[in-house]
Each structure stands twice: as structure tokens, then as C-alpha cells.
Amino acid sequence: MTGILGLLILILDVIAVVDTLRSSMNTGEKTLWVILILLLPVIGMALYFLMGKKP
Description:
Layout: H1 2-22, H2 27-39, H3 41-52
Helix pairs in contact: 1-2, 1-3, 2-3
């Protein structure tokens, strides 16, 4: 079961990084979000989807 959870987190992190790179944020913001997502996979991804994603 932990393997499936790890795979799910990896997939969601990849989606968050791709979404960040395709967003209209400036380069500095993109860099900070990608670093946060990569260093703190679960927390960084959750914070990005809750606070960082612009409509």
C-alpha cells in the first residue's frame, strides 16, 4: 500500500511542477515553487495547489 501512496505523491508532484512551469508567474516565483515542491513533496504540492496556483 505504501508503494501506491508513494507513486500517487510522485504523480501529483510532477503535475504540480509542470503546472508551475506552464503558469504565468515570473521566473523567480516559478523557481521558488519548484524548489519547495521538490524539497517538501507532500507539503510543497499541497501549498502550491492551495496558495500558489493562480486562476
